[in-house]
Design goal:
The protein is of the alpha+beta class and 206 residues long. It contains seven helices and five strands. α3 packs across α4. The radius of gyration is 18 Å and the shape is globular. One of its GO terms (molecular function) is protein kinase regulator activity.
């Protein structure tokens, strides 16, 4: 498979929502342990999995491969599920850190902050919310500036990785001036504290 022609490359570089995601390593996708529980969540799972592991096929050529028209949508759903687990791993956190350092995500809308945010989903379950932005300095959750985020299922990121990310990279918060260090992050939506989503084991995602 030519990586430049792969479905994953197409999704990350051509699809409008792809820029928010990181590239999941193929070896991680090929490990069935990492995909536990997903067959029940994605129709035509085996066909979709093989598709996203291979080259992108334009719609006009899909009939010869017996592919459904919505296979890209199903592929995005499956990739999002895999993505949510991968960002809990060291390799995934490292890739997220690079996107964070490259200013790929929104900045905090608080005029007294205006620092880099992290993507967050308020639920770990499919279909229960879109993608928001979390400011690790203010501890607030905001609507993303780009309306395309309303089309991203928040479960592709979830919130479980946030604390792990900040523990792995404490300098993210330590870059704040000493006299303005924020308190321990608490999820708040537009300034109002919210309860953390029910925790779920990212390996099993029941």
């Amino acid at each position: 498979m030519n990586e430049d022609k792969s479905w994953i490359t197409w999704f990350l570089t051509k699809h409008p929502i792809g820029k928010y995601f990181i590239r999941v390593e193929m070896e991680y996708i090929k490990d069935q342990f990492n995909l536990f529980g997903f067959p029940k969540k994605v129709p035509n799972y085996k066909k979709v999995l093989e598709y996203i592991k291979g080259d992108y096929i334009p719609p006009e050529n899909r009939i010869r491969y017996d592919l459904d028209e919505n296979i890209d949508d199903l592929g995005i759903r499956l990739y999002g599920l895999i993505h949510s687990r991968f960002i809990m791993e060291k390799a995934g956190l490292e890739k997220l850190k690079k996107k964070y350092e490259n200013n790929d995500y929104d900045r905090c809308p608080n005029v007294n902050c205006n620092r880099q945010c992290l993507p967050i989903g308020l639920s770990e379950s499919l279909g229960e919310g879109c993608l928001y932005m979390y400011c690790p300095f203010c501890g607030d959750v905001y609507h993303a500036e780009n309306q395309i985020c309303s089309q991203i299922d928040g479960s592709a990121f979830g919130s479980s990785y946030i604390m792990k990310f900040l523990k792995q990279y404490p300098e993210v918060q330590q870059s704040y001036e000493p006299d303005r260090l924020p308190p321990k992050p608490q999820l708040r939506l537009f300034g109002f504290k919210i309860e953390d989503p029910k925790p779920s084991d990212p390996k099993w995602n029941k």
